[in-house]
Amino acid sequence: MAASDDYVVGVDMGGTKILAAVIDGKGEIVQQAKTATKPKKGPDGVIKRIERCIREAIDGAELETSQIRAIGIGSPGPLDPETGVIIFAPNLGWSNVPLKAKLETIFGIPTCVDNDVNVGTLGEYAFGAGQGVKNLVGIFVGTGIGGGIILDGKLFHGINKTAGEIGHMIVDANGPRCGCGNFGCLEAVASRTAITKELQKAILKKGQKSKLLKLNGGKLDQIRSQAIAKAVKRGDKPTVKVMQRAGKYLGISVASIVHFLNPEMIVFGGGVIEAMRDSLLDPIRQAAAEYALPTTMDGVQIVKAALGDNAGVIGASVLARQRLS
Question: Is 219 exposed, middle or buried (0-12, 13-18, 19+ CB in 10 A)?
Answer without folding.
Answer: exposed
